[in-house]
Amino acid sequence: MAIGFYGFQFSILQFILVVLCMFFARNAAMAFNRIVDKSWDGINERTSRREIPQGIIKPQNALIFVIINMFAFWIATFFINTVCFLLSPVALGIILAYSYTKRFTFLCHFILGIGLGLAPIGAFIAVSGEFKLFPILIGIAVWAWVSGFDIIYALQDIDFDRQNKLFSIPAKFGAKGAFLISRVMHIISGLTIIATFFLYLNNSVFYSIAALVFNLLLIYQHSIISPNNMKRINFAFFNLNGVASVIFAVFAVLGFFLNS
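RE: above sequence
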């Protein structure tokens, strides 16, 4: 999110509004996904303990939660600027529509990546009110990063997806093909982060550390999981991805502001 303030004066109000937009959008997308997938979640052993299949949360209550967060998102964008407000339905449309894509295309992973890749672009527009190459590059890196690991995460449901005629890259190309595509996506992500360094922040020690650590953790994550060893998928997906994102964020923020 710090890229939204790169080259612009920092504003506490804008910072809070951008954080709220991320919070509301994520809430809406996650809850909507649970509603749309409730029938599949109920018969999938891996997801059958989720709140809606277990009856802990009623679908209609989850829908109310989605609607509240959608309106809260729109209100927040209204107070950011006109461009963000006008583009807000597009952003919400993409992250909500993702929940249906597994029913008709194996490209669903890339659509999820687009939804999250819009975040740095949206943050930049929130502050500047304009488009530039810099946030787009970061957005591409996020898109490739998220898409790559969503492909790996989907390996857990490869048999379920095939049996229920759901679409995913693992279901279509198998485990080896999925790993290959995932690695290609993460190479794109890593190279884009490096390209951003050379184009915009090559005098920033902090951003160089962020780029190095991010790439090393990507390499490490692919070294501990393979088509023949998928026991550590959750560790790589949740733990290491979380560590990579936090470390990158901290050092990138320092790089952005100290380089401004």
